[in-house]
Amino acid sequence: MTGALIECVPNFSEGRDPEKVGAIVExxxxxxxxxxxxxxxxxxxRSVVTFAGHPDAVAEAAFRGVAxxxxxxxxxxxxxxxxxLGAADVVPFVPVREASMQDCIRVAERIGExxxxxxxxxxxxxEAAARRPDRVRLEDVxxxxxxxxxxxxxxxxxxxxxxxxxxxxxxxxxSIVGARNFLVAFNVNLATSDVxxxxxxxxxxxxxxxxLPHVKAMGVLLASRGLAQVSMNLTDFETTPLHRVYTAVxxxxxxxxxxxxxSEIIGLVPRRALEQVAEAFLRLENFRTGMVLENRxxxx
Amino acid sequence: MTGALIECVPNFSEGRDPEKVGAIVExxxxxxxxxxxxxxxxxxxRSVVTFAGHPDAVAEAAFRGVAxxxxxxxxxxxxxxxxxLGAADVVPFVPVREASMQDCIRVAERIGExxxxxxxxxxxxxEAAARRPDRVRLEDVxxxxxxxxxxxxxxxxxxxxxxxxxxxxxxxxxSIVGARNFLVAFNVNLATSDVxxxxxxxxxxxxxxxxLPHVKAMGVLLASRGLAQVSMNLTDFETTPLHRVYTAVxxxxxxxxxxxxxSEIIGLVPRRALEQVAEAFLRLENFRTGMVLENRxxxx
Lengths: 300, 300
What we know:
The structure is a homodimer.
Chain A: E1 5-8, E2 11-12, H1 18-29, E3 34-41, E4 46-53, H2 55-72, E5 88-97, H3 101-119, E6 123-127, H4 138-142, H5 145-155, E7 175-179, E8 184-190, H6 195-205, E9 215-222, E10 227-234, H7 242-255, E11 260-266, H8 271-282, H9 293-298
Parallel strand pairs in A: 5-7, 6-7
Antiparallel strand pairs in A: 1-4, 1-5, 2-4, 2-5, 3-4, 8-10, 8-11, 9-10
């Protein structure tokens, strides 16, 4: 793929029925976007699809995916451990190459308006596309979830969507559409099943409690493996790189007398993020991305 | 660039006259090869050019570069701290993508034969292209250098080139042409000017004295920076990865009470080598190269 490239990583409120998820993915693919990955979680009852392409193809694919999800998902009977507001819950557009955040904001606005106009599903704009400061953070927009927001929106003007009125869609709720930077989902698994230690480490590294900038973190238990995990989102890996996050977690774990079992990246990671880790670990004095054979070859 | 791709990294015995080096690089470029890098060292009096392309273009480019070097360089008046046997001293071909070592051996044989036939410069085949076990190692082929070999070849049949007879070229000596794996040149700088410590570390990490496999190492002094350096070649970075080499050097340095000032990669490094470092440092459990955004995009 050459030319301008953006990514879309919608989260749909269906993680148990492979047929429904497959139909949504098929709708996305039908618009010519390249589907890079897909994960479904039955406990969360939620699926994440990653696709990329030219901004126009990605916009059309996102719309088709949302439309299919609105057809297939009924939030009145949906249950899962992950909070959600809509059938197509979150639809972020991410600049990848030769595309700016402004380009992604424009796509988010266009798709937000169209979802409301053609599907009757209200839309909140979030992150870089937010029109009000209290809608930048996803957590703030989603507070109360489907069941809470559909009541509150009727009486509280502050909760009225950016596209749509004082009424959510009866089965599909509302969608949260926006533009954001590439996000790296990075989990560190601890050599303990004590989830309180994972929570304590999460508190010490996350930005919201005075830890590392651009890091969201929570402690969870991986019941199937008997391991506690520090589950993180790195929302600006250039500013707070992977190795700094890993080192902070490992140091805090050591302080609490717990070892590291390993780590995992969920979804995709930009090449630059891994180059940063190598550069830091080897203490390279002269590293430039042009020193990487394949990067250099791409210039020809 | 798409399709079969090989690289050539010839070493020429001229590192002081930019005009001569420029003319050699121009000859290489004229055959349609992509010149990826070039470094000249006045103390070594030697230049390294890195270029890549389709095997046929790279073969033609290598021949033109050798021909130009044979025209321009007179070894009778050449002096430098680096050992050398020929004007075009070493010409290795390296498989990069959709090309095998066998492909590179064939190119080496073809160019070796042509350099002798058209330029009258004898050729030794080395590394994977060697026809005798005592010519696998570059050091063995070059032992005695230009001045020594031109005498010895007349009386010792074991030194007679693979292409050519018992006489070196009067001004261009002989060329050592072969095929090898990608080599990573990796130097670790020590926080000391005591070169004996660098030499001791080099001895402890290099394969030839029982250290890490596929590592060549020597201790040198960076006079201009007042730092001792462990200067290494990693001839099989998949088997002995960068992070293992760095860790071994750092541990030995710590044992000797010396810190690490930093490290440097000379020339190019394959993407996979950096991914390995990141994977090891972060202790990633689930890493696949397909998780790298750009790698994934290339599949579309």
